[in-house]
Amino acid sequence: MSMFDLSGKVAIVTGGSRGIGLGIAQALSEAGAAIVVAATHADQSADAVQRLRDAGATAASVPTNVADPDAALALVDEAVRLFGGVDILVNNAGINIRKRPEDYTVEEWHQVLSVNLDGPFFCSRAAYPAMKARGGGKIINIASLMSIFANEKAAAYGAAKGGLVQLTKALAVAWAADGIHANAILPGWIDTDLTAGARQQLPGLDEAVRARTPEGRWGTPQDLGGAAVFLASPASDFVTGTTLLVDGGFAAD
Ligand code: NAI
Questions:
Q1: Considering 83, 121, 122, 157, which one is annotated as catalytic?
Q2: Percent helix, strand and coil across the chain, each to the nearest 5
Q3: 157 is an active site residue
Q4: What is the pLDDT of residue 154?
Q5: For the chain, how many structural domains are there in total?
Q6: Best mutation site among 140, 192, 220, 243 for ligand 1, i.e. most ligand atoms within 8 A of its Cβ?
Q7: From CA 242, how far away is CA 140, in angstroms rounded?
Q8: Has residue 134 been placed in a domain?
Q9: Which of 72, 82, 171, 236 is most buried when burial is the number of CB atoms within 10 A of its CB?
C-alpha cells in the first residue's frame, strides 16, 4: 500500500467549493478520500461536488459558516452521519478585507478574524472527538505568507494567519498523544477569486508577483494538492506542528 493512499479516509475541506479548497479536495479524492465540501455558497458547493463526482470521487456538500461554532459542530455530525467518521480536516475557508489598519471598522476586523482564525479553531475543536474515535487524524490549516511578511493592507488578515500558525502548533502539541497531527500550509500567490480581487485593488501586483517569484508565475489551486496529500497521509506521520511553504520560492528570494 502506498504511504500516500487515503482510501477509506473521510476529509472535510472548508471553503472547498472553489479555488485552493477545490484544488485540495480534488487531490485528496484522487488519493482515495471521501470529501465533504463545507463552504458558504450552496450553489458553488453543489457544482464542486458534481465536479468531484464526475471525476469518480465520493463527495457531499454540507453548507457551513465556519465562524459559527454551532455550525462547526453540525458539520462534523453530518460528516459522521454521511461517511462514518472524520479523518482529515482542511481548514481552508478564508476571506480578506484590504484596508490600511486605521481604516478598519470594528466589525470588519472581527469579520476577518472570525472566518480565518475562529473558524479553524471551531472546526478543529468540533472534529477532535470524531478523530479521536478513529484513533487519530490530520488537521491541515491553510495559512499564508502573510504570517511571515507584512502588507499595509493586510493587518487583520496577517494577524489571523499568524495566529493560525500558532494555533496549529498548539493543536499539534495538545493532540499528539491522540494520534492527531496538525500542520499548516503557507501558499504563495495563487490565482483564485480571492487574488483576482487583490489584483484589482493593488495596481502592479500581477507584475510584482511574477517578478518576485523565482518560478516566474502565479501558483494554481492544483499546486497545493501534493502538499495536502502528503500532510493528510501516513507519509507525514512524524510531521506535526510545522509549516510547509508552497510558494514557488517566493519566501526564499
Ligand atoms: P477563494 O475566495 O477562492 O475561496 C474561499 C472559499 O472559502 C470559498 O469556498 C468560500 O465559499 C469559502 N468561505 C468564505 N467564508 C466562509 C465561511 N465563513 N465559512 C465557510 N466557507 C467560507 O479563496 P482562495 O484563494 O481559494 O483561498 C483559500 C484559502 O487560502 C484562504 O484561507 C486564503 O486565505 C488562503 N490563501 C490564499 C492565497 C492565494 O494567493 N489565493 C495565498 C495564501 C493563502
A1: 157
A2: 55, 15, 30
A3: yes
A4: 96
A5: 1
A6: 192
A7: 10
A8: yes
A9: 72
CA of 95 to the centre of ligand 1 (A): 6
In 3D space, the residue among 22, 31, 1 whose CA is nearest the CA of residue 142 turns out to be 22
What tens digit of pLDDT does each residue of 220-231 get?
Answer: 999 999 999 999
Atom of ligand 1 nearest to the CA of 197: 2
Minimum-distance ligand 1 atom for the alpha carbon of 218: 40
24: containing domain: 10-248
- 1 has a pLDDT exceeding 80: no
Q: How is 214-228 classified by DSSP, letter by letter?
A: TT-S-B-GGGGHHHH
Concatenated DSSP letters of 159-198: HHHHHHHHHHHHHHHHHGGGTEEEEEEEE-SB-SHHHHHH
Task: List residues near ligand 1 (CB under 6 A).
Answer: 14-15, 17-21, 39-41, 64-67, 92-95, 115, 142, 144, 187, 189-190, 192-195
Domain with residue 69: its CATH number is 3.40.50.720
Grid coordinates in use for 61?
456538500
| pLDDT of 187 strictly over 90 | yes
In a domain, 253, yes or no: no
